[in-house]
Design brief:
single chain; Rossmann fold; alpha/beta; 2 domains; 13 strands; 8-stranded mixed sheet; 449 residues; 14 helices
């Protein structure tokens, strides 16, 4: 089909979305893409999932889910019925009426945006782009990416956005480990490149999720996602800074926050930690910092928050070294440390940007030996920055094992950990998550950091 055809691609696509005959393609079957694919399938669409990682395709074909938000039963239900298929063959994009891009948007080693996954995926879509398709970017990025990066690549085909194909942006809002919300129950911010695209994007997501929140432009939608994560990054940096100040004063930041949050207005609790983790909060603010340079405008709050949060792992290791010296009379360089939790947040297996990896690296850079225990992460998977840790196994959490370490460092407060037993097995615990304070297990050998 070409742009000279007399058909009305806008009306036809709306009709296919309405009667659920549209086929949906989801590119990237990770923490965002796979739950979205299941949500679209549950809404009645036939879905094809695309990924460059063949191990994911094999796992899906075997009925094994590698994402906690998607159960094996859900995967089997839609796979067995033919509602969902997964493949590494991207030629199948030609058969999809709706294509959603859910690929990573990391930073380079110089902390600049790395849009290589987005640009490569856009070029792959362009190879089979046809009239009447909707392409939606969900990957977090700086304002202007959809219009300034994705659209030009797609229009190199000769097809025009808003006339021949439709382009939109809808930021992902997944929260791994949060059982209270599912993809379908989280309000979905959407925007299209022009009025025609806006109606198509709203129609598609309106068919799959409970609430759609349309905004005026794709750049606005891109800014919404950045604002959400910058808000969290800045406020976490604030309490991390307060933690350091109050530590020097002998004041427990956790007690302060617990008391402050009793105020029914004008206050929202945020909590300190050993550093920021996950794919969003440690990375997304720097997308706006980078883009703001184009307008010669400073982003002082964002950059300061990044400095404070990035300094937290080093602060924690300093506190660990101090505690070992004061409590055990032993230098960190001669100590064995057990890190509790490799994942970046509790009750998930996700280690993306996890501060635990940095903690292990810092401990060993100072001559110490670090092991970890995580009930959700049996061994360190491949990472871009910590390849030297790949394959390191989680050690068992038993009295014999724990007693062999000079200190325990709680970096992630998984619910599956027996904190009462851990308090009895170790002579020195450094707690970055208030895991023991919340359980009334505080003792002289438990230090907060």
């Amino acid at each position: 089909m070409t742009s000279n055809d007399t058909t009305n691609p806008h009306a036809e696509l709306l009709g296919r979305i309405e009667d659920r005959s549209a086929r949906v393609g989801v590119i990237g079957l990770g923490y965002v893409g796979l739950p979205l694919a299941m949500t679209a399938a549950r809404a009645g669409f036939s879905v094809t999932g695309f990924d460059i990682d063949p191990t994911k395709i094999v796992s899906i074909a075997a009925g094994r889910s590698y994402i906690e938000a998607v159960s094996a039963e859900t995967l089997a239900e839609f796979s067995a019925g033919g509602r969902f298929v997964a493949t590494t063959d991207f030629s199948g994009l030609a058969d999809c009426d709706v294509i959603v891009i859910c690929v990573p948007t990391p930073l380079t080693k110089h902390r600049d945006p790395d849009l290589s996954f987005v640009t490569r995926t856009s070029r792959t879509i362009a190879d089979t782009l046809r009239q009447g398709q909707l392409v939606v970017l969900e990957s977090t990025t700086y304002p202007g990416t959809t219009d300034g990066v994705v659209r030009p690549i797609l229009e190199e085909t000769g097809l025009k956005s808003g006339r021949d194909f439709f382009l939109g942006f809808s930021p992902e809002r997944e929260d791994p480990g949060n059982a209270q919300f599912r993809t379908s129950t989280i309000p979905k911010v959407v925007a299209g490149d022009g009025a025609a695209a806006s109606t198509v994007v709203e129609a598609f997501y309106g068919a799959a999720v409970e609430r759609v929140v349309p905004v005026s432009s794709t750049a606005t939608a891109e800014a919404v996602k950045l604002t959400e994560n910058i808000f969290r990054a800045v406020n976490i940096a604030l309490v991390n800074e307060l933690k350091v100040v109050y530590e020097a004063m002998g004041i427990d930041i956790w007690e302060v926050i617990d008391a402050a949050k009793t105020k029914p207005f004008g206050y929202m609790p945020f909590y300190p930690g050993p550093g920021l983790g996950g794919h969003c909060i440690p990375i997304d603010p720097f997308y706006l910092t980078w883009k703001s340079r184009e307008y010669e405008l400073p982003t002082r709050f964002i950059e300061l928050a990044g400095e404070i949060n990035s300094a937290m792992p080093r602060h924690v290791v300093d506190r660990l070294a101090e505690a070992l010296d004061m409590r055990a009379g032993k230098a960190l360089s001669r100590s064995k440390v057990l890190v509790i939790g490799l994942a970046y947040k509790k009750n998930v297996p996700d280690i993306r940007e996890s501060p635990s990896l940095k903690l292990i690296e810092l401990i060993e850079a100072r001559g110490g030996h670090a092991s970890y225990h995580d009930p959700h992460v049996p061994e360190v998977p491949p990472t871009r920055e910590y390849g030297h840790l790949r394959g390191r196994p989680s050690v068992p959490l038993t009295e014999d094992v724990v007693s062999g370490f000079d200190a325990v460092l709680v970096a992630t407060d998984h619910d599956a950990i027996d904190y009462a037993a851990l308090a009895g097995w170790s002579e020195l615990i450094v707690d970055t998550r208030n895991a023991f304070g919340r359980r009334a297990l505080a003792g002289g050998h438990i230090i907060k950091a």
